[in-house]
Amino acid sequence: MKIAVVCANGKAGSLIVREAVERGLDVTAVVRSENQSATQQVIQKDLFHLKASDLTGFDVVIDAFGTWTLETLPQHSTSLNHLCNILSGQDTRLLVVGGAGSLYVNPEHTAQVMDGVDFPAEFKPLASHMGKALEDLRTRNDVKWTYISPAGDFQPDGAKTGKYILGGEELVRNAKGESVISYADYAIAVVDEAVKGNHIQQRISVVAE
């Protein structure tokens, strides 16, 4: 299996690369600057400059793009749209490192995590833009995409336990009543999905056991 990880130098991207390499998968890092990930196979190119030919031959492309400044937040949509355009009509699957703010908190799917009164105001713009990117993605029937939302508490330096619970469109809590997952365990879930490919054109979510 050949996997490309876009934005492989980032915190999530680098852990996904490491997890895939440790499993013996054929992994290529797509990076804008010097490669700092665990694979030696590299495409050094800005995401927005990628062409269809750059991603030919990959079974899975994992999009680990993320940005946090107000000026760049719209790039969550534009970057994902660009990747969809160059993968349109291909067998290559696209896995997207998503956000938790757009997860639903009721069975009717009318209320999202980001709508809650306790949701931090400083994260609302990010959650809104990531939510819009997901809504745009849902319209793409020409791409074999899977959007993977983390738990509400997404911990960059959390422990790697190797265990997680797979959910769907709604926020899932574990037996302790917590919605939490480490980046390391999230990386395991992403690589599991890359290998299995069970959720084409679906949003799934993951939470620590």
From TrEMBL:
Q: Which CDD domains match?
A: BVR-B_like_SDR_a
A GO MF annotation of the entry reads:
oxidoreductase activity, acting on the CH-NH group of donors, NAD or NADP as acceptor
| Taxonomic superkingdom | Bacteria
Pfam families given for it? NAD_binding_10
The record places domain NAD(P)-binding at: 8-192
The molecule here is called NAD(P)-dependent oxidoreductase
Species this chain originates from: Evtepia gabavorous
